[in-house]
UniProtKB/TrEMBL annotation:
It comes from the Bacteria. The lineage of its organism: Bacteria, Pseudomonadati, Pseudomonadota, Gammaproteobacteria, Lysobacterales. Coiled coil: none annotated. This is Uncharacterized protein. SUPFAM superfamilies: Metallo-hydrolase/oxidoreductase. GO terms for cellular component: cytoplasm.
Length: 390
C-alpha cells in the first residue's frame, strides 16, 4: 500500500508539473510592484485592483459551473463557410473603410490609410493549454502573413479569447505597435515585445497611430489568466477616429451607462463592432447579448452594426447561430443597418453591401424566451431598461 501511494503521488506530481509547464508560457506576466503603483493612480483602481463602477452579478452554481456541458446546436455540425480575402488586400478600400471579421472578436480594420488588428486569435484554442480548452471551429480564414501592412494591434483585455500569446508574438515579429489597457503591457513585455512599442491606456485616454486617434472607452467586465491576482489589468473598448471615418469596438462588456457618453464625445460611428455572443442569463453583466448590443449601437450613434464575439468558439450555452438571429430580429425594431459577413470576408460598411445569409437555420431561443438584461447595481432584481419595441 505504501508503495502504491508513493507511485500515485509521483504520478500526480508529474501530472501537475506537465500541466504547469504546458500552461506557463501562455499565462503571461502580471504587473510588478512598480507598475501596480502607477496603475493604482487610475480612477478605476479600488481595493487593490481595477473595479467596475457597477458591480457584476454572477450565479456561480446556476451558470459558471454548467459551462463545461454542451447541448445540440451550440456548436456547428457542418463546416462553417469562410473567405480568404488575401487578394482583396492588394487594393486599398475604395471607401476608405474596410472591416474583416475573422471570427469571435478577431478583426482587421482598414481605416483612412491605417491598418489595425483587433484582439488577434490565430491559435487553435482560447486557452493556456494547447491540448485543452475552447477549440476553434475552423482554421484562420486569412494567414497573418497574407494581411496587408499592419500599423498597430489593439487588445481589449487579457482573457485568453482576446489576448493570445502566439498571435501577439507573430505580430511582434512584424514590428507593429501595440495599444492595450493598463497592466496588459506586462504580458506583452514578458513575451518579448519591446516596451517602446507598447502603449497602455486608461479609460478616456488616447493614442495616435499615423493619422488615427485611438481612444480607450469604458466597459463592464473583468480580467485574469488563471492567476490568484485577477483584475489587476484593465478591460476596455475603443473608439477609432480617422480623418474621415469613425469605428467603435465595444470589447467585452455588460450593459452600463457610459455608452451614451461615448456616442456624444466621439460619434457618430460609421460602423460599430459590438460583442453580441457568449452570453447567459446567469451572468448577465459580463456580456451584452444581442438585444443589449443593439441598444449600445443606438447609444453610441452607430450607423452600421457588425456583431462580433461569436461564430468561432463555444463559451456559453446558446445556439451558435443565435446571436445573428436575435440581432436581426432586434434590428427590425430599431430599423438598424446590420451586416453579418462570413468569417474572413472583407466588407466596406459605408458602401452598404448585401450579404446573403450564410449560417444554417436551426432552433434558437428568442429574446422573450431567454432575455439577457444587465443589472443596474449587481442586483438581478434591478435591471436596465433596454426595450426598443412595444
Amino acid at each position: 500500500m505504501k508503495r502504491f501511494l508513493r507511485y500515485t503521488l509521483i504520478l500526480l506530481a508529474l501530472l501537475v508539473a506537465f500541466v504547469a509547464i504546458s500552461a506557463w508560457p501562455n499565462i503571461g506576466t502580471l504587473p510588478d510592484a512598480a507598475q501596480t503603483a502607477k496603475d493604482a493612480r487610475s480612477p478605476e483602481w479600488r481595493n487593490g485592483k481595477f473595479e467596475n463602477p457597477l458591480p457584476m452579478y454572477t450565479n456561480v452554481k446556476g451558470g459558471v459551473l454548467q459551462m463545461l456541458a454542451s447541448a445540440p446546436g451550440e456548436e456547428p455540425d457542418a463546416p462553417v463557410p469562410t473567405v480568404d480575402s488575401s487578394a482583396v488586400y492588394r487594393t486599398p478600400p475604395a471607401s476608405g473603410l474596410r472591416v474583416t471579421w475573422f471570427g469571435h472578436s478577431s478583426m482587421l480594420i482598414e481605416i483612412d490609410g491605417t491598418n489595425i488588428v483587433v484582439d488577434p486569435l490565430w491559435s487553435e484554442r482560447a486557452s493556456p493549454f494547447s491540448w485543452l480548452g475552447p477549440k476553434r471551429w475552423y482554421e484562420p480564414p486569412v494567414p497573418i502573413d497574407h494581411l496587408p501592412h499592419i500599423d498597430a494591434v489593439i487588445v481589449s483585455h487579457d482573457h485568453y479569447d482576446h489576448l493570445d500569446r502566439a498571435s501577439i508574438q507573430a505580430f511582434n515579429a512584424l514590428g507593429v505597435r501595440f495599444i492595450v489597457p493598463l497592466g496588459v503591457g506586462s504580458h506583452l513585455r514578458g513575451w518579448g515585445v519591446p516596451a517602446e512599442r507598447i502603449t497602455e491606456l486608461d479609460w478616456w485616454q488616447d493614442a495616435t497611430v499615423g493619422n488615427l486617434r485611438i481612444v480607450s472607452t469604458p466597459s463592464r467586465h473583468a480580467s485574469g489568466r488563471l492567476s490568484a491576482r485577477s483584475d489587476v489589468t484593465l478591460w476596455t473598448g475603443y473608439a477609432l477616429i480617422g480623418d474621415k471615418h469613425r469605428v467603435f469596438y465595444s470589447g467585452d462588456t455588460g450593459f452600463n451607462d457610459t455608452f451614451a457618453d461615448v456616442g456624444t464625445k466621439y460619434g457618430p460611428f460609421d460602423v460599430s463592432l459590438i460583442e453580441s455572443g457568449q452570453y447567459d442569463a446567469q451572468w448577465p453583466d459580463w456580456h451584452l447579448g444581442p438585444e443589449q448590443a443593439m441598444k449600445v449601437h443606438e447609444e453610441v450613434r452607430g450607423k452600421v452594426l457588425i456583431p462580433v464575439h461569436w461564430g468561432l468558439i463555444k463559451l456559453a450555452h446558446h445556439a451558435w447561430t443565435e446571436p445573428p438571429e436575435r440581432i436581426l430580429a432586434a434590428a427590425k425594431c430599431s430599423h438598424a443597418d446590420v451586416l453579418v459577413p462570413k468569417p474572413g470576408q472583407a466588407v466596406e460598411p459605408t458602401m452598404h453591401p448585401v450579404i446573403p445569409r450564410w449560417w444554417p437555420s436551426q432552433h434558437v431561443a428568442t429574446a422573450k424566451e431567454k432575455p439577457i438584461v444587465a443589472s443596474t447595481h449587481g442586483d438581478p432584481a434591478q435591471k436596465f431598461d433596454v426595450s426598443t419595441c412595444p
